[in-house]
Amino acid sequence: MLEKISNKIVLVVLVALLVVSAAGNYFFMAKSKTLQDEVDREAGQITASNNKLSVEKTETDSWKKKYETANVQCKIETDDLKAKMAAFAKQAAACEQIKQKLHIQ
To answer: Are 69 and 77 in contact (CB under 8 A)?
Structure first.
C-alpha cells in the first residue's frame, strides 16, 4: 500500500515537473520570439542607416569635387585678375611718365 502511494506521489511529481517544464519552455520560446523580433527590427534600422550614410557619403564626395573645381577656377580667375591689375598699373605708370614728359597735369 505504501508502495502504491509512493508511486502515485512520484507520478504526480513527474507530471508537475512536466507541466512546469512545458510552461517554462513556452515562456522562453515566447521571450525568444520577442527578442528575435527586436533584433530583426534593429537590423532593419541599421540597414536603413547604412543606406542613408552611403547616400550622404556620395553626396559629400560630389560636393567635395564641386568645391575643388570651384577652388581651382577661383585661383585661375584670381591669378588672371592679378595679372590684369599688374598690367593696368604698368600702363598707369607709363601714362604718368608720358604726362610728365609732356608737362600735363
So the answer is: no
